Amino acid sequence: MTQRAVQSDVVQSESAGVNTGPLLEVENLVKHFPIRGGVLNKVVRTVHAVNGVSFTIERGETLGVVGESGCGKSTLGKCVIRLQPCTSGDVRYEGQSLTELSHVEMMPYRRKMQIIFQDPYSSLNPRLTVNALLREAIRFHRIVPPQEVNDYIVKIIETVGLRPDVRRKFPHEFSGGQRQRLGIARALAVKPEFIVADEPVSALDVSIQAQVLNLMMDLKEQFGLTLLFVSHDLKVIEHFCDRVLVMYLGIIMEELRCDDLLSDALHPYTQALLGANPINDPAQRKPLTVLQGDVPSPFNPPRGCPFAGRCPKVMDQCHEEMPPLEIKGDGHRVACWAVE
């Protein structure tokens, strides 16, 4: 048993000897947003946000999702925890399909699955104090007996590195980094097993980003958490995650271990992202890969591979048929006709 499992009371009590498979399984997930207009409010266009995504997450693992803005990363995370209904496909948590569960049936899973939002300035209710923000979720899910709620709130606030006296303050009285710590505290307050971190540091200064990332790494080990970590920064993904999914226009282009990211990335899009990334050693500088053209419109995705119009290795087949996401090694999948 890993140190994570030993430290996590939640994981020990709810999963010991019960589930040996993946904690989360996503199969062919599709999410389309209809755009309505005209006098009769008919569907005039459709945004293809996520198009047939499949992956699994093991208990205690951190899976990163990276890609350009608008590629469907955040939508994927919200669909996984049913904040948004998926158009088709299936999401299974500990073997239980979540896509067809009613609002009441989803309640036990609402506690197990939480989210840390990207913007700490808009994700907290400005009319509630910190005490009220945390108390609401704790009492609703009956995390601790009523007489222990105040002590539990103090414990959670101290866990994320804030002083207990902040309980009486409102969100506007905090800095961006402190608000994101409150967002983390709100997610932790219900003792979740799985957390979607939707670009939790992108709105923060660089120095504060490091503090919040280190805090999340410590909490992950302390509570035995499983994370889906969404980011557009490959450096953060490489440092924080175990595996990474590289997305482009709602499709997974490549999946591989983060330890192999620099040496084994095969897809031209992943290589372009790595080429645009800052490097630690100037002596290892390589020619910058500049992608030509623009990202195709999600209203009208192109036939074949969506990256074909910008790919330096494009072939005729790329414009006609979408390549399958094929296994190229242990835990390594690539969707590219040009990769042997």
Sheet of most strands:
8 strands, mixed
Helix/strand order, N-terminal first = HHEEEHEEHEHHHEHEHEEHHEE
| Lateral arrangement of strands in the main beta sheet | 6-7-8-3-9-10-12-11
Low-confidence stretches: 1-17
Distance between the termini: 38 Å
Q: Rg to the nearest angstrom?
A: 21 Å
Which descriptor suits the 3D outline? globular
**Beta fraction of the residues?**
15-25%
Strand tally is 12
Give the % helix: 25-40%
**Average pLDDT score:** 88
Class by alpha and beta content: alpha/beta
Number of helices: 11
Describe this structure in words.
With 340 residues, this protein is α/β, with parallel strands linked by helices. It is built from 11 helices and 12 strands. The strands form 2 sheets. The chain has an 8-stranded mixed β-sheet with strand order 6-7-8-3-9-10-12-11, with helices on both faces. Strands 2-1-4-5 form a 4-stranded antiparallel β-sheet. A hairpin with a 2-residue loop joins strand 11 and strand 12.
Write the layout of secondary structure elements.
Layout: H1 3-7, H2 9-15, E1 24-37, E2 42-57, E3 62-66, H3 73-80, E4 88-93, E5 96-97, H4 103-112, E6 113-116, H5 130-140, H6 149-159, H7 176-188, E7 194-198, H8 206-223, E8 226-231, H9 234-240, E9 243-248, E10 251-257, H10 261-264, H11 268-275, E11 326-329, E12 332-334
Parallel strand pairs: 3-8, 3-9, 6-7, 7-8
Antiparallel strand pairs: 1-2, 1-4, 4-5, 9-10, 10-12, 11-12
Helix pairs in contact: 7-8
